[in-house]
């Protein structure tokens, strides 16, 4: 029996146990994936205790523990380093490696939806943890440019300062540019039924809009983009399954099929 869990607070809403059980079934693997919800200051002791079990392969880490997880690990993968956050622990020879699969999950989902990334002009909305994870992954996917829009402009600037090494992709803070190919909402605004303060003309017919949030109905951001003319609107459920698939791969060396799990999850949401 293999074990893993997701650390979060709150964590009751997490779909990760369902997703990983489905993945494990695909390979006939016995995998017990649980939820752990320690108090904020008890994260380290909870992680120590869980990871001490020899059956445990690792864990996922979600809000609000991703920065603590970054500090906790013995070693960081390049992805975790660049994202500044850890969402996956992998146990290797009694050492804990911190990785980050969020960015890959996003890219996989965009590609699954046939979104062309190479050479794309991207508007990234937000400058928190979610945007931080997305930015290096977009650069690796060879987009032409990323403009960052954030309510607090200084945070957008800080995000770019930390990534100044990335050669070919043009990175800048959004001013009043237009003609984007892809607009990604990396804020949690849709959870409050709000939309970012941006002009409607950016949501052209040929623009793809992606909201990292998912709900049991189209999110406020996607509804707004559609009303303003945008034809392709995608929510973050596929990214959730995609990042889980990448974590599963890190633990078992096997890449699960995302599609059937996504279909089941979408059905269960309705
Ligand atoms: P996460 O790790 O989920 O990205 P975060 O670090 O708190 O969470 O970042 C949340 C993002 O949503 C930020 O970009 C934040 O903008 P600020 O940097 O200006 O705070 C954005 N956000 C949250 N609530 C918002 C609101 N009401 N209006 C505009 N932006 C908001």
From TrEMBL:
Name the enzyme's class: oxidoreductase
GO molecular function of the protein, one example?
shikimate 3-dehydrogenase (NADP+) activity
Q: Enumerate the active-site residues.
A: 66
* UniProt: NADP(+) binding residues: 126-130, 150-155, 212, 236
Q: Which residues form the SDH C-terminal domain?
A: 236-261
Question: Where do the annotations place shikimate binding?
Answer: 14-16, 62, 87, 102, 214, 243
The catalytic activity of this protein is classed by the Enzyme Commission as 1.1.1.25
Per UniProt, residues of the Quinate/shikimate 5-dehydrogenase/glutamyl-tRNA reductase domain are 113-188
The Shikimate dehydrogenase substrate binding N-terminal domain is annotated at 6-88
Q: Does the keyword Isomerase apply?
A: no
| Catalytic activity, as annotated | shikimate + NADP(+) = 3-dehydroshikimate + NADPH + H(+)
Q: Which Gene3D superfamilies match?
A: Leucine Dehydrogenase, chain A, domain 1, NAD(P)-binding Rossmann-like Domain
Highest taxon of the lineage = Bacteria
Keywords in alphabetical order: Amino-acid biosynthesis, Aromatic amino acid biosynthesis, NADP, Oxidoreductase
The pathway is: Metabolic intermediate biosynthesis; chorismate biosynthesis; chorismate from D-erythrose 4-phosphate and phosphoenolpyruvate: step 4/7
The UniProt function text for this chain reads: Involved in the biosynthesis of the chorismate, which leads to the biosynthesis of aromatic amino acids. Catalyzes the reversible NADPH linked reduction of 3-dehydroshikimate (DHSA) to yield shikimate (SA).
Q: Which family does it belong to?
A: Belongs to the shikimate dehydrogenase family.
The record's note on quaternary structure and interaction partners says: Homodimer.
The name under which this protein is listed is Shikimate dehydrogenase (NADP(+))
Q: Which organism is it from?
A: Agaribacter flavus
Q: Which gene encodes it?
A: aroE
């Amino acid at each position: 029996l293999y074990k893993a869990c997701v650390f979060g607070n709150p964590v009751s809403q997490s779909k990760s146990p369902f997703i990983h059980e489905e993945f494990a079934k695909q390979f006939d693997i016995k995998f017990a994936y649980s939820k752990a919800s320690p108090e904020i200051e008890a994260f380290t002791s909870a992680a120590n205790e869980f990871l001490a079990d020899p059956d445990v392969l690792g864990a996922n880490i979600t809000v609000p523990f991703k920065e603590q997880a970054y500090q906790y690990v013995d070693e960081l993968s390049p992805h975790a380093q660049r994202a500044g956050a850890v969402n996956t622990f992998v146990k290797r020879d009694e050492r804990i490696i911190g990785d980050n699969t969020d960015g890959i999950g996003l890219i996989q989902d965009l590609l699954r939806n046939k979104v062309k990334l190479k050479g794309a002009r991207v508007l990234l909305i937000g400058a928190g943890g979610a945007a931080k994870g997305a930015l290096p992954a977009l650069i690796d996917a060879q987009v032409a440019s990323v403009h960052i829009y954030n309510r607090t402009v200084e945070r957008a600037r800080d995000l770019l300062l930390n990534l100044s090494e990335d050669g070919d992709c043009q990175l800048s803070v959004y001013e009043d540019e237009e003609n984007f190919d892809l607009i990604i909402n990396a804020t949690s605004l849709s959870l409050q039924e709000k939309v970012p303060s941006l002009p409607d003309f950016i949501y052209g017919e040929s623009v793809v809009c992606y909201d990292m949030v998912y709900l049991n109905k189209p999110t406020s951001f996607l509804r707004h983009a559609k009303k303003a003319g945008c034809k392709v609107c995608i929510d973050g459920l596929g990214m959730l399954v995609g990042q889980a698939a990448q974590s599963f791969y890190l633990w078992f060396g096997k890449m699960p099929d995302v599609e059937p799990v996504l279909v089941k999850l979408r059905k269960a949401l309705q």
